[in-house]
Structures are given as C-alpha cells and as structure tokens.
Write a structure and sequence with these properties.
This protein is α/β, with parallel strands linked by helices. Helix content is about 25%, strand content about 20%. Strand 25 and strand 26 form a beta hairpin. The chain is elongated.
Length: about 625
C-alpha cells in the first residue's frame, strides 16, 4: 500500500488545518548586510570546531521574529513582557543575560503566548514555552571527523523511539557497536523535530528547529551524533520540508508561511513561490544549516520533495542545494542532501549548473517495487505496474523502470530517462519505514516470504550498483512489525479522525476496520520496538551473518562498488524464473523458482563461489546449478 511516500496516511491532515499558525524568529542576524537579507553569512554561521567556544547567553541576543503584518510583538520571560522593536519586516529586542536556561514565549498583537517558531527546545511539548539552548556549551570530540563519500555508503535507517529498549538517543548509542559489526557506514535517523505527544514517526513535526524532548532533547542528539562519529558512522537526518503537522503548528500566526494558491494532501501548501516567500525559504534553508552547524550531521534526507509545490524560476530545492554547498565549502568538508521523490525525474540529482536541483542522491521507488513484487508476488496497488523479472532486470541497470513508459496504476506515462547518471546518485532498498509501516499491520519482508527469498532480496540490494539501505531489524529478520503510531491523547477529536481515516484507507484494500491497529494505542507503538534478544537466536543469527558477509563482499570488490551502470549486464528467463547479473568479473546468480535451475554462464572461464545462500552450487566453466530459491555470488 502506498501513501505517496509521505510517511502518513492520505487525508491525515485534512482534519483541522484552520489553526496553522506561526513561529517567531529567535535567531541571530543571518547577514551583516541587514535583517532582510535572504543569504546567510556563513562566516557568522560556522562553528569553529577546532577552537573551544566560550559559553554564550542562554537566550539568543538579539531575539528576532519575522512577523511582517504584526502591529506589535512581545516576548514573555518569567512573567515579564518585553516589547520588540520593528526593523523592516522583523522584530527584535536585546534580552538580558541569563545564567541558566530560560523559558520564553512570543506574543503577537496581544494574542496568546506561543512558542518561538525557531525554538531549539520544547521541553514540555509543542504548545508550551520555548527554552533557549547554548550550543557552544556542548563539548564535541569529533573535530577530526571526516565521513567517507556518499558513493561508498551503506545506510541503516532507524527510528529512535523503537530502535532501543529506552527509545532515546542514549539508548541508541548503546546499540552502535552492532551497526559497526554489521558493516554499515551511515545511520539515517527518522525525523526528530518536535512533534505532538511522546511517540510517533516524526513526520507531523511542527517545531522544526527543536529536537524531540522525549528522545533526549538537543544535548541527547549531540551525544548520539558525537558517538556515531567516534565509531566511524556518519549521520543522515530525515527532515520534512513539504508540510507541518496539524497540532502545535503556529507558523501562520507569524507570517505568510502557507498559501492557498496550492494544495497538498495535508491542506494548504507552504509558500515557496508567492508573496514574501523569500523569508519562508530563509526559514527552511536556515533549518538545514542548523543541523549541519549545531548538530554536526553529515547529510539530510528530504522527505517527499514531490509534495513541495514551487513554480519559481529558482526552485527552493535548488536554492537549498546551493546554500548547503557554500556552507560545506566554508567548513571544508562534504555535506549531502538526499531526496525522497516518486517523480522519476533525473533533474533532482543533476547539477544546478545543468538545469537540475543539484541534490546529491534520491530514493528509487521503482527499484523497491520491482524487487518487492518479484520476491513476494504481490500485485495490489502500485505493485500492479511491476512483478516481472523484466522490470527487475531494468531496475538493476536503470533506477527508473518507468522513464516515460505508460503506468497502468497512474493511468498515464510516468518519468523520464536517467541518462548518463551514476548509480551512486540513487538510494535503494527492499524495506524502509514507508514500505513496511504503511502496510495495514506493518508487515516486514520476513513475514511475507520465507528466509530463502529474504536472503535473495538482501543480496540483490547489497550487491547492486546503487547506494544500499537497510531498515532497522531487517538484518536479522526481526519478528516485530513496524506499525503506524501517533500520540494525540490530549486531543481526542483529532485522534479519532486519524484512526478512522487510517481504517477507511485500508478498507479499500479489503481490510476489516478491527484488523487495522489503532495508531493511538500504546500497544501499537510497543509492538514496533525491536526485539534485540532475537539477535542471538540461531535462525536470526544466520540472517544477520548473511548480511554481514554480503557487506564484506561488497566492500572487498571494486566491481561491486562502482556506480557505472553501463558496466552491468543482466540476463533473465521469465519462464524459468532465473536472473543473472554480471559486473566486471563478478556474477550474481538468482533462482526464484521452487525447483533447481541450471543457468548457462556467458564466459567460459574458471569461477570461484564467493558466497551462496544455500549449499555451494555446482559450477563449471559454462554453467551453474542453483538450488531452489537461492542466490550465489561468483568471482573469477
């Protein structure tokens, strides 16, 4: 089942969009050229990581709020109200020194006290006062850290709340050695921007500058990133720039952050191309820079960019890529942007000098759908466009199976060819939070197929010419599902609407309402926690060892790490259900049939079995005999 890749069910935000509000701008001046500048001053933004930082005041000085239509703006600190002075469209005030963290709220035109739109911390949730953070007070140990290139990445996606028993950043730190032993290089963290309640996926975030308090807040995330770097793991953070959630979203009270000119599945679109949109863009660009600057992340994953509606000559995504590139140059290290997109449009990753957006990589849905449909046999929904070995063969040589081809599911041609683009520009997987969590019961692949077929899928992903990604627990065939969960317990009307909307959506797929887990129930969240005790059990340990060995083989052979798609030759037999991938002296042979298959090898030369999912296959100079539902990797 698909939800458009947004991580949330369709219609989710159609519940009460009337209270989209605002956020105040607490930040420091972004440019010495004036408060209205739309370009950041990178010299001012940069963190001098090699030099100790003196503690800064606990509240930003000056406090700045963008509220172009406001008649008055005040800050409420400890019961005292202080007026801000207007300078162009911004409001500012020098706050008195505070020796410890201070809570504060913003009041616009005498209205209610609201959180700061650029709040770095919401310790009591999305509706309460903001708390200032002194980023210079944290003691980093990663001054010499430099991640490897994105082209060499093996990504591991995780959700902080369910990854460890504690469900916190500190709990996740305790499990990092497992990831090091597995052999992954990048840890991708699902959204941590403050969202309502204590539990959720994070795609309903409303305070985009604030780290989720229930996970450990700003310092907790810094400890996590610092620990990852100490163990040689880069950090990718999932951010949502296509919408905000329905509860605690106060942006619209401050300025024209939203527009009625465009609509999204969640209501009014963000104003990236209308009047005063330059400051809206500034808000999101500054947010991206914050994660690199204050939290030392190495890359951002941009959620569902196809839902960002922008008709301007220089699209927001291009501006974001340019500013991140400038900031990376200032830091002297590589920073990356990875897009989720179902557009099948190579412009996403083409350099902006050539008319593209200039992002560094994007997810390939077509690869996932091609592999999933072959492995599972599912043909419902968007999988109806897939299911043949022909599609999987194309996906292994070209990330877009639909590159202008007629899609029956969409009832129109879809995509355009990705010509002369490296495989290193595409992230692929057979499981991720969307493709697991947006099934009615959050079924993992190991719940849909036997272990043999799951091992085949892992080999195809991890030995592909693309950037492979695993989803938490996939590496040991974890038995816990990953279900959709939220926490709107203090807003019963909204909670009920979300639950009913979820059940109506799955009714179209034949599910009975009572069989769809209630996202509000804590049990839905608890079921989704990883069961770490399984790792030592023989059946799970066998799958884990298979993933480790696949990663070792990938790392050991240049033929398996190149992104050259023109160097791949794929042969298959639809009737016999076998597929052969040949890559510069390495052959990956797959038998999807439930019977033994003999497959001819193109080159008559001696072969060595590097890895096999079942008993070693029979290999001659001309053919290989594969056991049912098995895969073997051959080297010369």
């Amino acid at each position: 089942m698909q939800n458009g890749g947004f991580g949330l069910p369709r219609g989710y935000w159609r519940v009460n969009h009337s209270h989209l509000a605002r956020m105040s701008e607490e930040g420091k001046p972004l440019s010495r050229r004036g408060m209205g500048s739309t370009r950041p001053d990178h010299a001012r933004l940069a963190v001098k990581r090699s030099q100790p930082q003196k503690p800064r005041r606990a509240l930003p000085k000056p406090l700045r709020v963008w509220a172009p239509e406001a008649r008055s703006v005040e800050v409420l600190v400890g019961g005292e109200r202080m007026a801000l002075e207007r300078v162009d469209e911004w409001w500012t005030v020098d706050l008195p020194y505070a020796g410890e963290p201070v809570d504060y709220s913003i009041i616009v035109d005498g209205g209610p006290a609201l959180p700061d739109p650029r709040s770095n911390w919401q310790p009591r949730g999305v509706h309460q006062a903001s708390r200032a953070v002194d980023h210079a007070a944290f003691s980093w140990t990663d001054e010499s850290w430099r991640p490897g290139p994105l082209s060499s990445a093996i990504i591991y996606e995780l959700h902080i709340g369910t990854f460890s028993p504690e469900g916190t950043f500190d709990g996740a730190i305790k499990k990092l050695d497992h990831l090091v032993r597995l052999g992954v290089s990048h840890v991708e963290v699902m959204p941590i921007a403050e969202f309502p309640g204590e539990r959720g996926w994070g795609y309903d975030g409303v305070h985009l500058f604030a780290v989720k308090h229930a996970y450990g807040g700003p310092d907790g995330f810094k400890r996590f990133v610092d620990a990852c770097h100490a163990k040689g793991l880069a950090v990718v953070l999932d951010v949502v720039y296509n919408h905000l959630g329905p509860s605690g979203n106060y942006l619209a009270s401050f300025g024209p952050y939203f527009t009625e000119r465009h609509q999204t599945p969640w209501g009014s679109a963000l104003n990236f191309d209308g009047r005063k949109s330059h400051e809206v863009r500034r808000y999101f660009c500054d947010n991206a820079i914050q994660w690199f600057r204050d939290y030392h992340v190495d890359a951002l994953r941009l959620d569902a960019i196809h839902a960002i509606i922008d008709a301007s000559a220089v699209p927001f995504l291009q501006q974001l890529a340019m500013e991140v590139e400038e900031y990376a140059a200032h830091l002297g290290k590589h920073l990356y942007l990875i897009a989720e997109s179902d557009l099948n449009d190579p412009r996403v990753v083409r350099p902006y000098e050539l008319g593209g957006y200039g992002l560094h990589a994007q997810w390939s849905d077509d690869f996932h759908h091609s592999l999933h449909a072959v492995i599972t046999g599912e043909q419902e929904g968007y999988y109806s466009d897939f299911g043949r070995l022909k599609d999987l063969a194309k996906a292994l040589c070209n990330p877009f199976v639909y590159a202008g081809r007629l899609s029956n599911y969409r009832a129109r041609p879809h995509g355009r060819p990705a010509v002369e683009i490296s495989g290193h520009k595409f992230v692929i997987c057979v499981q991720n939070h969307d493709q697991v969590g947006n099934r009615a019961q959050g079924d993992r692949l190991c719940m849909l197929v036997n272990r043999d077929r799951a091992k085949m899928a892992a080999a195809i992903v991890l030995l592909s010419p693309f950037i492979p990604m695993l989803f938490q627990g996939e590496e040991w065939a974890c038995s816990s599902p990953f279900q959709y969960f939220v926490d709107y317990g203090d807003e019963p009307e909204l909670a009920a609407a979300i639950t009913e909307g979820r059940r109506r959506e799955f009714a179209d797929f034949g599910w009975q309402p009572e069989d769809v887990p209630d996202p509000q129930e804590r049990a839905t969240f608890e079921r989704s926690r990883l069961r770490w005790e399984e790792v030592a059990e023989p059946a799970h340990a066998d799958v884990l060892e298979w993933h480790r060995r696949l990663i070792q083989v990938r790392r050991s052979m240049p033929a398996l790490t190149t992104g050259r798609l023109d160097l791949i030759d794929v042969r298959y037999d639809e009737a016999e259900q076998w597929l052969l991938v040949e890559r510069e002296g390495v052959t990956i042979a797959c038998n999807f049939a439930d019977e033994e298959r003999q497959i001819s090898l193109r080159a008559q030369r001696p072969y060595k079995v590097l890895l096999a999912s079942k008993a070693p296959p029979q290999v001659s100079g001309e053919s290989i005999v594969l056991a049912p539902e098995s895969v073997a990797v051959l080297g010369e």
